[in-house]
Design a protein that fits this description.
This protein is of the alpha+beta class and 318 residues long. It has two domains: 130 residues, 60s Ribosomal Protein L30, Chain: A, CATH 3.30.1330; 152 residues, Alpha-Beta Complex (Phosphoribosyl-aminoimidazole Synthetase, Chain A, domain 2). It contains nine helices and twelve strands. A seven-stranded mixed sheet has the order 7-9-6-10-8-11-12. Strands 1-2-5-3-4 form a five-stranded mixed sheet, with helices on one face. Strand 3, helix 3 and strand 4 form a beta-alpha-beta unit. The radius of gyration is 19 Å and the shape is globular. It starts with 5 loop residues before the first helix and ends in an 11-residue tail after the last strand. Bound molecules: adenosine-5'-diphosphate (ADP) and magnesium ion.
Length: 318
Protein backbone atom coordinates (compact mmCIF):
# COMPACT_ATOMS: atom_id res chain seq x y z
CA UNK A 1 0.00 0.00 0.00
CA UNK A 2 1.24 3.47 -0.77
CA UNK A 3 2.62 5.33 2.24
CA UNK A 4 1.20 8.77 2.83
CA UNK A 5 3.13 11.97 3.24
CA UNK A 6 4.86 14.49 1.07
CA UNK A 7 8.32 13.14 1.88
CA UNK A 8 7.31 9.48 1.39
CA UNK A 9 6.16 10.38 -2.11
CA UNK A 10 9.42 12.18 -2.81
CA UNK A 11 11.30 9.05 -1.60
CA UNK A 12 9.15 6.92 -3.91
CA UNK A 13 9.94 9.21 -6.84
CA UNK A 14 13.66 9.03 -6.11
CA UNK A 15 13.69 5.19 -6.18
CA UNK A 16 12.70 5.34 -9.87
CA UNK A 17 15.66 7.42 -10.97
CA UNK A 18 19.31 6.59 -10.68
CA UNK A 19 21.35 9.74 -10.27
CA UNK A 20 24.10 9.83 -12.93
CA UNK A 21 27.62 9.72 -11.56
CA UNK A 22 28.95 13.09 -10.47
CA UNK A 23 25.49 14.65 -10.11
CA UNK A 24 23.42 15.29 -6.97
CA UNK A 25 19.68 14.79 -7.31
CA UNK A 26 16.62 14.72 -5.07
CA UNK A 27 17.18 15.54 -1.41
CA UNK A 28 18.91 18.89 -1.31
CA UNK A 29 17.89 22.50 -1.91
CA UNK A 30 19.22 22.27 -5.46
CA UNK A 31 20.35 19.58 -7.83
CA UNK A 32 24.03 19.78 -8.78
CA UNK A 33 25.24 19.16 -12.33
CA UNK A 34 28.98 19.44 -13.11
CA UNK A 35 29.48 21.84 -15.97
CA UNK A 36 32.87 22.66 -17.52
CA UNK A 37 34.84 22.93 -14.28
CA UNK A 38 32.01 24.59 -12.35
CA UNK A 39 28.82 23.21 -10.84
CA UNK A 40 25.41 24.22 -12.14
CA UNK A 41 22.71 24.39 -9.45
CA UNK A 42 19.06 23.88 -10.39
CA UNK A 43 15.90 24.13 -8.34
CA UNK A 44 12.19 24.65 -8.89
CA UNK A 45 9.44 25.74 -6.51
CA UNK A 46 5.73 26.16 -6.97
CA UNK A 47 3.23 28.63 -5.49
CA UNK A 48 -0.46 27.76 -5.64
CA UNK A 49 -3.36 30.05 -4.93
CA UNK A 50 -5.21 28.87 -1.81
CA UNK A 51 -2.18 26.91 -0.58
CA UNK A 52 0.73 29.36 -0.68
CA UNK A 53 -1.14 32.62 -1.02
CA UNK A 54 -4.61 34.11 -0.97
CA UNK A 55 -5.45 36.74 -3.53
CA UNK A 56 -7.22 38.92 -0.95
CA UNK A 57 -4.29 38.80 1.51
CA UNK A 58 -1.37 39.67 -0.74
CA UNK A 59 -0.93 42.10 -3.62
CA UNK A 60 0.04 40.68 -7.02
CA UNK A 61 3.41 42.46 -6.60
CA UNK A 62 3.96 40.65 -3.28
CA UNK A 63 3.25 37.28 -4.89
CA UNK A 64 5.61 38.03 -7.78
CA UNK A 65 8.32 39.01 -5.33
CA UNK A 66 7.85 35.89 -3.25
CA UNK A 67 7.76 33.51 -6.23
CA UNK A 68 11.23 34.68 -7.23
CA UNK A 69 12.52 35.07 -3.64
CA UNK A 70 11.82 31.50 -2.52
CA UNK A 71 13.65 30.13 -5.56
CA UNK A 72 16.64 32.45 -5.19
CA UNK A 73 16.73 31.30 -1.58
CA UNK A 74 17.38 27.70 -2.69
CA UNK A 75 20.47 28.89 -4.57
CA UNK A 76 21.54 30.88 -1.48
CA UNK A 77 21.06 27.70 0.57
CA UNK A 78 23.86 26.01 -1.39
CA UNK A 79 26.13 29.07 -1.25
CA UNK A 80 25.63 29.58 -4.98
CA UNK A 81 25.42 32.54 -7.36
CA UNK A 82 22.02 32.83 -9.07
CA UNK A 83 22.29 32.97 -12.87
CA UNK A 84 18.74 33.05 -14.26
CA UNK A 85 15.12 32.17 -13.55
CA UNK A 86 12.30 30.67 -15.63
CA UNK A 87 8.64 31.40 -14.89
CA UNK A 88 5.57 29.29 -15.72
CA UNK A 89 2.16 30.68 -14.86
CA UNK A 90 -1.38 29.34 -15.18
CA UNK A 91 -3.90 32.19 -14.96
CA UNK A 92 -7.69 32.11 -14.65
CA UNK A 93 -9.60 34.77 -16.66
CA UNK A 94 -9.79 37.26 -13.78
CA UNK A 95 -6.02 37.27 -13.37
CA UNK A 96 -4.97 37.55 -16.99
CA UNK A 97 -4.89 41.35 -17.23
CA UNK A 98 -3.91 43.79 -14.51
CA UNK A 99 -3.22 41.08 -11.93
CA UNK A 100 -0.65 39.42 -14.17
CA UNK A 101 1.10 42.69 -15.01
CA UNK A 102 1.36 43.69 -11.38
CA UNK A 103 2.63 40.19 -10.51
CA UNK A 104 5.41 40.66 -13.07
CA UNK A 105 6.26 44.10 -11.60
CA UNK A 106 6.95 42.42 -8.24
CA UNK A 107 8.88 39.58 -9.87
CA UNK A 108 10.94 42.09 -11.86
CA UNK A 109 11.67 44.25 -8.77
CA UNK A 110 13.44 41.46 -6.87
CA UNK A 111 15.07 40.14 -10.05
CA UNK A 112 16.63 43.57 -10.65
CA UNK A 113 17.70 43.89 -7.03
CA UNK A 114 19.71 40.67 -7.25
CA UNK A 115 20.57 41.14 -10.94
CA UNK A 116 19.07 37.82 -11.99
CA UNK A 117 17.48 37.80 -15.47
CA UNK A 118 14.26 35.92 -16.31
CA UNK A 119 15.14 33.92 -19.42
CA UNK A 120 11.94 32.03 -20.27
CA UNK A 121 8.91 30.15 -19.03
CA UNK A 122 5.39 29.18 -20.03
CA UNK A 123 1.98 30.85 -19.86
CA UNK A 124 -1.36 29.02 -19.87
CA UNK A 125 -4.94 29.56 -18.78
CA UNK A 126 -6.38 27.98 -15.65
CA UNK A 127 -9.98 27.09 -14.81
CA UNK A 128 -9.97 28.64 -11.35
CA UNK A 129 -6.80 29.08 -9.33
CA UNK A 130 -3.50 30.76 -10.12
CA UNK A 131 -0.52 28.39 -10.31
CA UNK A 132 3.04 29.68 -10.46
CA UNK A 133 6.19 27.64 -10.94
CA UNK A 134 9.66 29.13 -10.98
CA UNK A 135 12.82 27.35 -12.01
CA UNK A 136 16.17 28.79 -11.04
CA UNK A 137 19.67 28.11 -12.27
CA UNK A 138 22.77 29.02 -10.28
CA UNK A 139 26.43 28.17 -10.18
CA UNK A 140 29.36 27.67 -7.82
CA UNK A 141 32.91 26.31 -7.91
CA UNK A 142 33.03 22.58 -8.60
CA UNK A 143 32.50 20.46 -5.49
CA UNK A 144 31.95 23.44 -3.21
CA UNK A 145 28.12 23.60 -2.96
CA UNK A 146 26.90 23.35 0.63
CA UNK A 147 24.50 20.44 1.02
CA UNK A 148 22.57 18.95 3.90
CA UNK A 149 24.78 15.94 4.62
CA UNK A 150 27.95 17.53 6.03
CA UNK A 151 26.99 18.20 9.67
CA UNK A 152 29.63 16.88 12.11
CA UNK A 153 29.33 16.01 15.80
CA UNK A 154 30.44 19.01 17.87
CA UNK A 155 29.56 21.58 15.18
CA UNK A 156 27.60 24.61 16.30
CA UNK A 157 24.22 25.28 14.70
CA UNK A 158 23.53 28.81 13.48
CA UNK A 159 20.81 30.79 11.73
CA UNK A 160 21.35 34.04 9.84
CA UNK A 161 18.45 35.99 11.33
CA UNK A 162 15.39 36.10 13.56
CA UNK A 163 12.95 33.18 13.35
CA UNK A 164 9.17 33.20 13.45
CA UNK A 165 8.51 36.63 11.94
CA UNK A 166 7.00 35.19 8.78
CA UNK A 167 4.87 32.67 10.66
CA UNK A 168 3.56 35.36 13.00
CA UNK A 169 2.91 37.63 10.01
CA UNK A 170 0.83 34.87 8.44
CA UNK A 171 -1.12 34.37 11.70
CA UNK A 172 -1.76 38.11 11.82
CA UNK A 173 -2.93 38.15 8.20
CA UNK A 174 -5.26 35.17 8.57
CA UNK A 175 -6.58 36.39 11.92
CA UNK A 176 -7.22 39.89 10.54
CA UNK A 177 -5.33 41.43 13.47
CA UNK A 178 -5.63 45.18 13.84
CA UNK A 179 -2.66 46.74 12.09
CA UNK A 180 0.12 48.56 13.90
CA UNK A 181 3.81 49.04 13.13
CA UNK A 182 4.82 45.66 14.57
CA UNK A 183 2.10 43.71 12.77
CA UNK A 184 2.92 45.48 9.50
CA UNK A 185 6.58 44.53 9.98
CA UNK A 186 5.75 40.83 10.49
CA UNK A 187 3.34 40.75 7.55
CA UNK A 188 5.97 42.36 5.33
CA UNK A 189 8.42 39.64 6.41
CA UNK A 190 5.87 37.02 5.40
CA UNK A 191 4.98 38.58 2.06
CA UNK A 192 8.44 39.76 1.00
CA UNK A 193 11.12 37.38 2.23
CA UNK A 194 14.79 38.20 1.63
CA UNK A 195 16.88 35.45 0.05
CA UNK A 196 20.25 35.42 1.87
CA UNK A 197 22.29 35.26 -1.32
CA UNK A 198 25.36 37.30 -0.32
CA UNK A 199 25.41 35.61 3.09
CA UNK A 200 25.30 32.14 1.48
CA UNK A 201 28.24 32.97 -0.76
CA UNK A 202 30.27 34.38 2.14
CA UNK A 203 29.54 31.30 4.20
CA UNK A 204 30.69 29.04 1.37
CA UNK A 205 33.89 31.09 1.02
CA UNK A 206 34.84 30.47 4.67
CA UNK A 207 35.34 26.79 3.85
CA UNK A 208 34.05 26.01 7.36
CA UNK A 209 30.37 25.17 6.82
CA UNK A 210 29.41 21.52 7.31
CA UNK A 211 25.77 21.55 6.22
CA UNK A 212 23.49 24.35 5.09
CA UNK A 213 19.90 24.83 3.90
CA UNK A 214 17.30 27.57 3.84
CA UNK A 215 14.44 27.65 6.34
CA UNK A 216 11.28 27.16 4.30
CA UNK A 217 9.30 24.61 6.34
CA UNK A 218 10.35 25.73 9.83
CA UNK A 219 13.36 24.94 12.02
CA UNK A 220 11.97 21.69 13.48
CA UNK A 221 11.31 20.18 10.08
CA UNK A 222 14.25 21.62 8.19
CA UNK A 223 16.88 20.78 10.80
CA UNK A 224 15.56 17.20 10.77
CA UNK A 225 16.51 16.99 7.09
CA UNK A 226 20.10 17.98 7.89
CA UNK A 227 20.24 15.50 10.79
CA UNK A 228 18.92 12.61 8.69
CA UNK A 229 21.15 13.42 5.74
CA UNK A 230 24.21 13.70 8.02
CA UNK A 231 23.41 10.78 10.37
CA UNK A 232 23.64 12.94 13.51
CA UNK A 233 21.43 14.46 16.23
CA UNK A 234 21.16 17.95 17.71
CA UNK A 235 20.30 19.86 20.81
CA UNK A 236 18.52 23.17 20.31
CA UNK A 237 18.19 25.72 23.09
CA UNK A 238 14.78 27.37 22.85
CA UNK A 239 15.99 30.47 24.67
CA UNK A 240 18.70 30.99 22.05
CA UNK A 241 16.31 31.24 19.12
CA UNK A 242 16.68 34.80 17.85
CA UNK A 243 13.39 36.70 18.09
CA UNK A 244 12.77 40.15 16.66
CA UNK A 245 11.47 42.79 19.11
CA UNK A 246 8.41 43.06 16.87
CA UNK A 247 7.67 39.34 17.25
CA UNK A 248 8.17 39.49 21.00
CA UNK A 249 5.77 42.41 21.41
CA UNK A 250 3.09 40.92 19.15
CA UNK A 251 3.35 37.53 20.89
CA UNK A 252 3.00 39.17 24.28
CA UNK A 253 -0.02 41.19 23.21
CA UNK A 254 -1.76 38.16 21.69
CA UNK A 255 -0.58 35.48 24.13
CA UNK A 256 1.19 33.57 21.39
CA UNK A 257 4.21 31.47 22.34
CA UNK A 258 7.09 33.09 20.51
CA UNK A 259 9.45 30.10 20.90
CA UNK A 260 6.84 27.73 19.41
CA UNK A 261 6.39 29.97 16.41
CA UNK A 262 10.15 30.42 15.99
CA UNK A 263 10.78 26.67 16.19
CA UNK A 264 8.00 25.44 13.96
CA UNK A 265 6.62 28.09 11.63
CA UNK A 266 8.00 28.22 8.12
CA UNK A 267 8.96 30.68 5.43
CA UNK A 268 11.57 32.75 7.21
CA UNK A 269 14.09 31.93 4.45
CA UNK A 270 17.00 32.51 6.80
CA UNK A 271 19.92 30.12 6.34
CA UNK A 272 20.39 27.24 8.78
CA UNK A 273 23.96 25.94 8.98
CA UNK A 274 26.39 23.89 10.99
CA UNK A 275 30.03 24.91 11.47
CA UNK A 276 32.79 25.20 14.07
CA UNK A 277 32.00 28.15 16.37
CA UNK A 278 34.86 30.32 15.06
CA UNK A 279 32.96 30.84 11.82
CA UNK A 280 31.35 33.90 13.41
CA UNK A 281 34.74 35.66 13.09
CA UNK A 282 34.95 34.97 9.36
CA UNK A 283 31.78 36.67 8.10
CA UNK A 284 30.66 40.30 8.26
CA UNK A 285 27.03 39.62 9.31
CA UNK A 286 25.62 38.18 12.54
CA UNK A 287 25.22 34.44 12.99
CA UNK A 288 22.92 33.35 15.81
CA UNK A 289 24.08 30.28 17.71
CA UNK A 290 21.06 28.09 18.51
CA UNK A 291 22.47 24.66 19.33
CA UNK A 292 24.98 21.87 18.79
CA UNK A 293 25.29 18.79 16.60
CA UNK A 294 25.43 15.60 18.69
CA UNK A 295 25.71 11.87 18.18
CA UNK A 296 22.43 10.01 17.84
CA UNK A 297 19.38 11.15 15.94
CA UNK A 298 16.62 13.74 16.15
CA UNK A 299 16.40 17.00 18.06
CA UNK A 300 16.60 17.38 21.84
CA UNK A 301 15.00 20.72 22.70
CA UNK A 302 16.26 22.39 25.85
CA UNK A 303 15.03 25.41 27.78
CA UNK A 304 17.79 27.08 29.83
CA UNK A 305 19.89 23.94 29.36
CA UNK A 306 17.24 21.48 30.59
CA UNK A 307 15.58 19.06 28.16
CA UNK A 308 11.94 19.97 27.66
CA UNK A 309 8.97 18.06 26.28
CA UNK A 310 8.67 20.63 23.54
CA UNK A 311 7.65 18.73 20.39
CA UNK A 312 7.03 20.65 17.23
CA UNK A 313 6.70 19.66 13.64
CA UNK A 314 7.25 21.96 10.74
CA UNK A 315 5.06 22.28 7.72
CA UNK A 316 4.45 19.40 5.29
CA UNK A 317 1.96 19.47 2.45
CA UNK A 318 0.41 16.04 3.13
P1 LIG B 1 12.80 22.97 -0.61
O1 LIG B 1 11.97 23.25 0.61
O2 LIG B 1 14.25 23.31 -0.45
O3 LIG B 1 12.22 23.58 -1.88
P2 LIG B 1 11.49 20.43 -0.75
O4 LIG B 1 11.26 20.06 0.67
O5 LIG B 1 10.39 21.05 -1.54
O6 LIG B 1 12.77 21.38 -0.83
O7 LIG B 1 11.99 19.17 -1.55
C1 LIG B 1 12.94 18.28 -1.02
C2 LIG B 1 13.70 17.61 -2.14
O8 LIG B 1 12.83 16.81 -2.93
C3 LIG B 1 14.36 18.58 -3.14
O9 LIG B 1 15.62 18.04 -3.48
C4 LIG B 1 13.42 18.57 -4.32
O10 LIG B 1 14.10 18.83 -5.54
C5 LIG B 1 12.87 17.16 -4.31
N1 LIG B 1 11.51 17.06 -4.86
C6 LIG B 1 10.37 17.56 -4.34
N2 LIG B 1 9.29 17.24 -5.10
C7 LIG B 1 9.77 16.53 -6.16
C8 LIG B 1 9.16 15.92 -7.31
N3 LIG B 1 7.85 15.99 -7.53
N4 LIG B 1 9.97 15.27 -8.18
C9 LIG B 1 11.31 15.20 -7.96
N5 LIG B 1 11.93 15.74 -6.90
C10 LIG B 1 11.19 16.39 -6.00
MG1 LIG C 1 15.32 24.90 0.36
Amino acid sequence: MAKKGEFSLIDFISTHFKVPQGMVGIGDDCAIIPDFGEDTLVSTDMLLEGIHFLRDKATPEDIGWKAAAVNLSDIAAMGGIPVATFLSIALPKDAQGEWAERFIEGYAAISKLYKVPLLGGDTTSSLRDIAINVGVKGRCDHGKALGRSGARVGDSIFVTGPLGDSGAGLKALLGNLTRNGDIDYLIEKHLRPTPRIAEGQQLLATGKVGAMMDLSDGLASDLSHILRASGVGATIELKSLPLSPQLQRVCKANRWRAADIAASAGEDYELLLTAPSEITQLVDFPLYHIGTITEGEGIVWTRAGKPTRFKKRGFTHF
